[in-house]
Amino acid sequence: MSLNDTPSGERVHIGFFGRRNVGKSSLVNAVTGQNLSVVSEVRGTTTDPVSKAMELLPLGAVVITDTAGYDDTGQLGEKRIEKTKQILNKTDIAVLVIDSAEGVTAVDNELKEIFRQKKIPYIVAYNKADLKEMPCSENEISVSAKEKRNIFELKEKIAKLARSTETEKHLIADLLKPDDIVVLVTPIDESAPKGRMILPQQQAIRDILEADSVAVVTKEYQLAKTLQSLSEPPKMVVTDSQAFAMVSKIVPESIPLTSFSILMARYKGFLETAVKGAVAINDLRDGDTVLISEGCTHHRQCGDIGSVKLPDLLKRFTGKELNIDLTSGHEFPENLSPYALLIHCGGCMLNGREVAYRRKIAEEQEKPFTNYGTAIALMNGILKRSLGIFPDLIKCV
Fold first, then answer.
1. What's the CA gap between 207 and 348, in Å, rounded?
2. Domain 270-379 has CATH 3.40.50.11410
């Protein structure tokens, strides 16, 4: 996979924040080497956030976002600030752009406090150094977007800060030894993306190969024959959540079985939360509303898992009259009071910070939070079995 193919959820998200007319857009253009944002002397030229997935040397695959001025005014200004707040929820590294000539303002200090509260590492870039140089500390730098001064040094600071916050994560490689065989069950139906595999399947294959293990990919209807053809039982079988019920009947109890969705929940850091949240399905009552939320946006088709299959399974399993709300992409309500349960997708297209933010909202409002695969495993009666490779979590069921 090339850097240009790196999915958004695996990129470092860098956001540029600050007041209007401090040169955020000019600095973004200077850093990216592209005319990503419209530049004007008119205050408030940047309205909605502008994002670009790209390769930023020396860091690598990133998403850079230019935001509207945090001091915007009026009814439209308030909406623009709300958009900026949404960007903050998925920002890995923040760059606070301050006008050197005007100095630090109350708005700048407010943004610093938000970064601290949200635990977002940040750098202060004093722009317009061609007009006035500012004394700088370790996380500060004096730059000039106009003269392209210290732009390389700013990128170096961003890269250094990003590397200092990196943690090594694996989808499945840390569960394997060299030469282990893993069978991946990947259904191909009308909702599968044409000509490609979904992201968790791609990541699993890559992770298995990096562990010097062997990936065997098959469809659910060929699984029995695939298992028979192997000279020895596989280390484990990983299935798409939609095929859980069928696959669990085919795979012997002696072979560990789990799902891409359960592995992705662990990778994103919320598997224990997902397991505890799935158990709350047993407590749903008539009239309860369940929020089903997807991190990506796609055209919903007949048989779509989020809008059709999962709601149908919920109603059959509980026997209750339930209301279902759907959200997708970056839409996610901050007020969760209407909901008895939240069921999220695997979050493969969201970065870890945004998934953590959504989980945090649910925890603060004491709302059960789970994901597709964990919920489906529970409703098929195989959740304990699918957690067999994580024995510490079985007690949560």
1. 15
2. yes
Helix axes 372-379, 260-267, angle to 10 degrees: 130
Place of tokens 């696959």: 247
Q: What is the pTM of this model?
A: 0.76
Q: Two tokens at 41?
A: 């002397």
- Considering the chain, tell me which residue range(s) the CATH 3.40.50.300 domain(s) occupy: 3-164
**CATH for the stretch 173-263:** 3.40.50.11420
CA 41 to CA 61: how far, in whole Å? 31
Q: Where in the chain is the domain with CATH 3.40.50.11410?
A: 270-379
Residue 221 has pLDDT above 70, yes or no: yes
- Measured N-to-C along each axis, helices 24-32 and 151-164 cross at an angle, to the nearest 10 degrees, of 80
* Six token digits for residue 51: 């994002």
Backbone CA torsion sign across 16, 21, 23, 28: positive
What is d(CA 112, CA 129) in angstroms, rounded to the nearest whole number? Answer: 21
* E strands in 203-315: 214-218, 236-239, 257-259, 289-294
User: Ramachandran region of residue 307, left (φ > 0), alpha (ψ -120 to 50) or beta?
Assistant: alpha
Which of 35, 53, 37 lies closest to 45, judged by CA? Answer: 37
Distance between CA atoms of residues 162 and 64, nearest Å: 13
The tokens 């956030």 sit on which residue?
49
pLDDT number for residue 301: 46
Could you tell me which of 309, 301, 196, 296 has the C-alpha nearest to residue 244?
Answer: 309
For residue range 284-324, list pLDDT tens digits in order.
999 999 999 987 765 454 457 777 889 999 999 999 999 99
Strands 50-56 vs 60-66: parallel, antiparallel or unpaired: antiparallel
Cβ distance 217 to 186 under 8 Å? yes
Which residue would you say has higher pLDDT here, 243 or 178? 178
CATH 3.40.50.300 fits 3-164, yes or no: yes
